[in-house]
Structure formats: C-alpha cells, structure tokens
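Human
Can I borrow your eye for a moment on a structure tokenisation matter? Give me a protein, with the fold worked out from its sequence. Write it directly below this note and I will take it from there.

Assistant
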Amino acid sequence: MQSPDLPGSVSSVPTRTSPAKRALPFHVMTKPIGARCNLECRYCYYLEKEPLLYPDRGVPRMDDETLECFVRDYIAAQPADADVVFAWQGGEPTLLGFDFFKRAVALQKHYAGSRKIQNAFQTNGTLLDDKWAAFFRAEEFLIGISFDGPARLHDQYRVDRNGRPTWDKVRAGLSALRRHGVAFNTLTVVNRRNCNHALDVYRFLVDAGSRHLQFIPLVERRPRAADLDRHLAHSAPPTGPQDLVAPEDIAESVTPECAPPGGYGKFLRTIFDHWVRHDVGRVFVQQFDSTLSATYGMGPTVCVHQPRCGRALALEHNGNLYACDHYVYPEYRLGNIRETPIAGLANGPAANRLGDLKADLSERCRKCPVRFACNGDCPKHRFVSTGPGRPGLSYLCEDYYGFFTHVQPAMRAMADLLRMGRAPAEIMRAEVRRAAGIR
C-alpha cells in the first residue's frame, strides 16, 4: 500500500539507510517535553536532572525535524517481523497538545510500510478529557496513568506546583478514558505513605477499572552536591564504590518519601496473597507476571530483574539518547540521533556499559536462591555496601528475597499448570492449593 502524502513533512532531514545487519531489538522511552510537568510530586526523581539536561532553562520541546528523524529511524531499526512500539513519557506529555501527537501518528503511518505500530502513553492523568480520550481511542493508544491509591494516600505526594491535591483530576481523567473505551493500565509508586495500605490500594485500583497494575518501588538517594558536581564533570558512573553506604545507614541514605526497608516486600506479599485466591486471570500485576515467567523458565520480564539491561533507552526532546531512563546523566549519554542513526547508538559499545554494570553481582547475589527471578535488581538501587571494593546490594534486597521466597510454592504450582496446558487461574481452587502445599 502506498503511503499517503504527509502534509508539512520535514524535507530537510536526510534519509539514512539503516545497517543491513541489525542487533537485538531495543526499546526507547521518549520524553518529547523532557522533564516539564504541571505537577511537582514530592518524590519525583526527574526534578534533580533539570540543571543537567536544561542548563539554559529553556522550555523543552521536541521539534519537527527531531521527531521525524526519530520516528523514521526507530521504525527502520526494529526487526521486520516485529511490532514497533513507541512509548511517550515526560514530564507530562499532554502539555505538548494534540498537534504534536497527531503529527507523530501521521509520521508513523508514513514510514511504517507493512509494520504494525503501537503507541504507549504515560500520563499523570490530570489534563485528560473527552477530546484526549477520543484521540487515544481512535489511534488505539495504550495509556499508563499514575495513581497512588485512594485520595488520602495519592494526595500525600502527588500534588501540583502550588501544593494542591490532584486526586480529583486524575479520577476525572480516568473516567474520560473509560467512557471512550481506551485501553489503560495503572502505575502506582509504592512509598512510605501507601506501603502499609496494600489491600486498600489494590482494591481501589481494581474497583476503578484497572486490570493491569504496576507497583513501582520508590528508591531515591538523598541529593548531594557532590553527585551533581560529578555528573556535570562527566566523571564516574553514579553507582561507583564511593556511593555505597553501610547496611546500618541504609534507612537514612534515602529520601523520606521512600518506603522503609521491608515495606515494599510486605506490600507485594499482602496483595499476592489476596490475588492468588481471587484474581488470577482477571487482574494482571506486572511483578507477579514477571515472577511466573522466571519460575516457568522463560526469564523475568521486568527489566530490573533481567540478567542484563541496556536495551531500554531514553530519548530527550533534543535528540540526546541515554542508556536508561534512570541514568539520564551526561556520562551515560550515547549520542544524538540527529548526528548518528539511532540503531548505531543503541548497538554501539557505549550502550553495553550499563549491561556490564547490571551483570556485576555481589557474591551474596550470585549465591542467592532467588537470583533466577531477581538478578540483583536495578544497578541504581545497589548502594548497600558488602565490603570495600565489592559490588553493592540493592536497597530492596530484603524486600525481594522475602517476596520471591513467599510466592514460590504458588508460582511453581502455576508453572506446572502451564506445562500441563492448563490455566494458572486453577490455582484459585482450594484442592489445587492444598496439593501444592499452599496454605
């Protein structure tokens, strides 16, 4: 099928031929408006990056040439037999308005050829209305909406720039999505305030219509002037030995909004014990799906639990490409897509640095019985000392060990059901649980 003419196409961006031999697929989280946001969540990790990414304090916005360069080359870089998934994030991407995303979709259709294009869009939900929802439905976007639970929990940290609560606006935005039949999932930051209210949060999200849930642990180091100076100097990676803390100092090393050690694991275990009896096959929790995949022998599906990382890149509004969304620091800048084709940056030696860091495990991690599901967690979280000159442990080590150990009887039972060609939801039958030794 011939691609339609694209009104206003940027002809000044030259066409480049992608390498004939491509490496493994890669994913890009695109931040076309950078860290700009209408909220000022008290736990936001991206706010500290403003002096690193926008030293001129200008308003970040991806221009038409960079957008076309990205869409064209990203499609070309993916395997011919695979769907191409675009992930739009921020900051808050709705601040760009409709025209930007209408143009992005038009460019995708122009360059897609026979490939299927999918769009995922992460938003705080406060600016969503019927117009946005109708657009998302027409173009089949998948929306990820941030919701931290009932109002009394959500509004503790997710506030606007004037410190005002946002729960009512998020709920209104979610209602607009549901009215128009837009596919969505929810992203919940597990923090000090909501970690002790696991079932309240879970039941609220399910009652709100969410059937695909992500529970993201908040782990943020207390900001230090030395860290900013080091990043500005393009010096050592942000997880070098100089960053490690003694185990007895772990609680004081993170920001006050973080759940205390053990809090995230307890949160997951509490929800799992309810889910495995009532909601298997009806509600899908990302962490549970990843654990079942690992138990079945397919490996974890969440990037922080895979043996290596570095294939989930982050693109800033100006075309700068970074090794990871959590490593948007000058020393992890891979290059600029306007200067080097994105496939070359994604598959170049600089992109492997983070993967090497991920694979460098402490002796305790290497011998851990739940390594197959955990793999040491994200390098960003490994700042607990195991001794001079040795790799660190994750802040969440206790949490993950407790969770993975707790769920293994049920996970093995569900994996056995899959091997027999049966549905994992059969685990909800009392006799199946008894046979598997699950209380």
